[in-house]
Amino acid sequence: MLKKTRLFFTALFFTALCAFSANANVIITGTRVIYPAGQKNVIVKLENNDDSAALVQAWIDNG
After folding, report:
1. pTM of the predicted protein model
2. Number of structural domains found in the chain
3. Cβ-count burial of 46 within 10 angstroms (0-12 exposed, 13-18 middle, 19+ buried)?
């Protein structure tokens, strides 16, 4: 039982370390995107504040 508990907390610790390694180099200007019903597109400005390149993935859902 002690071995399983120790293994669980070790795995939890390393998972937490990975979760805190996120960077906020790419910033969206604004807090939301308003998409008018009559328009076919909308422009969203993203800004990269770091010297290295960044990859951004975006999607639209019905939720």
Report:
1. 0.45
2. 1
3. exposed
